[in-house]
Amino acid sequence: MDGIKELDKEALYQCSDPEQFTFETTADLEDLTGVIGQARAMEAVQFGIGIGQEGYNIFALGPVGTGKRSIVRQSFERQAASEPVPSDWCYIHNFEQSHKPQALRLPAGKGGELRRDMEEFVQELRTALSAAFESDEYQTRRQVIQDEIQEQQQEYFEALQQKAQERGLALLRTPAGLAFAPVRDGEVLSPEEIENLPEEERKRLESSSEELQEELQKILRHIPRWQREAREKLRELNREMTNFAVGGLIDELREKYTDFAKVVDYLNALQEDVIENARDLLVSGEEQSGVGQDGSHQQNAVLLAQAAARSLRRYRVNVLVDHSRSEGAPVIYEDNPTYQNVIGRVEHRAQMGALLTDFNLIKPGVLHRANGGYLILDARKVLLQPYAWEGLKRALRAGQVHIESIGQMLSLLSTVTLEPEPIPLDVKVALLGDRLLYYLLAQYDPEFGDLFKVAADFDEQMDRSEQNQEPYAQLLGTLARKEELRPLDRGATARVIEHSARMVGDAEKLTARTRQVADLLREADYWAAQNGNGVMTKADVEQAIDAQIYRSDRLRERMQEGIQRGTILIDTEGAKIGQVNGLSVIQLGGFAFGRPSRITARVRLGKGEVVDIEREVELSGPIHSKGVLILSGFLGSHYVQDKPLSLSASLVFEQSYSGVEGDSASSAELYALLSAIAEAPLKQSLAVTGSVNQHGQVQAIGGVNEKIEGFFDVCKARELTGEQGVLIPASNVKHLMLRKDVIDAVEGGRFHIYPIETIDQGMEVLTGMSAGERDDAGNYPEGSINHRVESRLAELAEKRMALREEDRG
Questions:
Q1: What is the distance between the alpha carbons of residues 263 and 73, in angstroms, rounded to a whole number?
Q2: Strands annotated E in 113-229
Q3: Least confident of 321-335, 389-403, 561-575, 636-650
């Protein structure tokens, strides 16, 4: 044990000296303008912002709470402030194909202006049309057209009537239509009178009637043509009056938007549409009021009014994106990235039992609102929403946003829908997610690497260097001001820095998870208020930490209680063969604690198998099983190399009723195995953690602070004897940030922590015996642990060979 020295107080906790700070409270410090501890990620973000090539979107990966979203957003906003405001986007009616609305791009603010102008135009349109079509001039000219056709028809019929009278016939209107009948003295002859006429007279009348009937048919065949001519004249009159009524209004708009060719084309098409459909846009006063009409007429008036209103809707402008109040490029974070919220949607409205839509019901998605700027999305939320991920990729890949409903995409809709013209897309997207999600997407989505070429990897920790102490204090002050909390004094600042190192389980690092630090500050501020302090002090921070632990450690208390009551068997005194106290960590949410477990080993003659009972019953994970298999390699390489390994050993975590994973107990299992082989008792006052390799070197593990404190709590509850302690890997010493009561016990010699580099060192501490090293002849010293192990293994090998010879005999 000459080379093994237990750790002293200074190695167990790296203090942060409050006197190193030059401020009295963090209120004296300026806000932290940059980002500390994330140089790699910040360089990646700046590169992603600066490069304008296709596909160089950003994926910010790292643990939750590292400030990915706020850092990315701040970087985007700084860049966006220096960039121009992007264009407005509108949808307008397509007068040639109404189901395909046209996209209209206008300078920022012009979209809303055009919408207001068109709303005013629609209001003035009805007034102008009403005035035009109700004017005396229009009514007179309309009456002239109607009179012309009536006079023309009357002239032809009068001439035909005159000719009939000259031939003794009269033109009569019958239920079957117009017909000629003989007359005498102005009276129509009856059938009997016609029969009594002379045959020659009768034949003359019949011949004349047939001739006149032919002329009548010619006149009747001309009537539809005359009516068409009248309607055409009336249509021309309507066009003339409409053009006169609205031409000036549209000319004003054309002049105002003369620099925008697409707007002028739209106004030209609109003018033609108004001229062609002017009468449909109006409902007469009698039809609107329905006064003096029955119910069916009133219903008809309502339907006409609705039809007119629908017709006027097509002259509106649907402003999809309005940047009239924007400054710089947009930076948008979408918290609910559904397919419709990302791509946009076409809404429907129910009318008369049917779902109807038009371009006014097109609603923008976040890609429209972020177009020309920057978009931030949570990758996990996007992937959880049906088709949202595919929709986002399609838009980025195509460089345009095509609004299409999921039902339409899957051919599930039979209702009338629209096919809006796609809008060109120019946006820088940043996805936020953890590392596993990033690597899974990179592995299994072939399009991911082409669309998100920039990986901004946010670290969860930073160096605890002198250069970072003052910036970290600035960070604490900035967080306190942002949350409107009390400032921290120097003692509180130093304590938060110390706890920050404890959060990452490394005395030489600080946590970069600002969310956890901000939570601690909020709670410390609460206790400062309870204690009547104007600033946060070290005591307030300590109280907040203790309160956090107390709220979360119910299960730890129950486990400790089980050990104290003897329900869970853990020895802290004496020595036993093949039995050792292993240490593990249980993580429950954001709270972790250590728990000792009894590990036992039994050996007998066998075929060189080390049986892991946990693995056999499928209670161990692959890493733990790997650690156990390493033990066989260690035995084979260190002992009786010229003879077959002839033992059968079983290892088990006693009273383990759930899964076991990790290799941090492999050194403890090896100690128990060597103890069982050498029949050397191990001190039960000591607990062990650390993994081991085939060379017998003890390797670092995680959760070393929680493991030490877990066994310390058991020993403390049973009273510290001065013999208890823990064996940890020497490479874990730099991670120690232990509780004060553990440090005080070590300083007083009532608890011990041994840094171990090899299994031989650990066996010496656990047994109090020398491990022994091979001499020049390759033999271990008599009485050493290694000699006893090798002798026992050799004995088992000889017995096995003897039994084999007996079987052959």
A1: 36
A2: 169-174, 177-184, 187-188
A3: 636-650
Domain 9-37+459-552, CATH class in plain words: mainly alpha
Residues 6+ apart with CB under 8 A from 765: 1, 4, 683, 686, 727, 754, 756
- Rounded to two decimals, the pTM is 0.81
Catalytic-role residue among 664, 666, 667, 691: 664
Q: Where are the domains of the chain?
A: 9-37+459-552, 115-312, 558-804
Dihedral angle at the C-alpha atoms of 180, 186, 192, 193, nearest 10 degrees? Answer: -110
Q: Partners of 592 in the beta sheet? A: 587
Helix (H, G, I), strand (E, B) or coil at 354: strand
Pairing of the two strands 177-184 and 187-188 = antiparallel
Element (H, E) at 369: helix 366-370
How far is it, in rounded angstroms, from Cα 319 to Cα 575?
Answer: 82
Q: In degrees, to the nearest 5, what angle opens at C-alpha 196 toward C-alphas 193 and 198?
A: 125
Domains 9-37+459-552 and 558-804 agree in fold: no
Is 233 a residue of the active site? Answer: no
Which pLDDT band, with edges at 50, 70 and 90, does 300 fall under?
low
pLDDT digits (tens, 9 = 90+) for 258-269: 999 999 999 999
Q: How far apart are CA 380 and CA 433, in angstroms?
A: 6
Candidates 68, 110, 428, 707; catalytic one: 707
3-state helix, strand, coil in the chain (%, to 5): 50, 20, 30
Calculate ∠ Cα 448-451-456, nearest 5°. 85
664 tagged catalytic: yes
> In degrees rounded to 5, what are phi and psi of residue 400?
-155, 155
Class of the 558-804 domain? alpha beta
pLDDT in tens, 195-225: 667 777 767 767 777 776 777 677 667 677 7
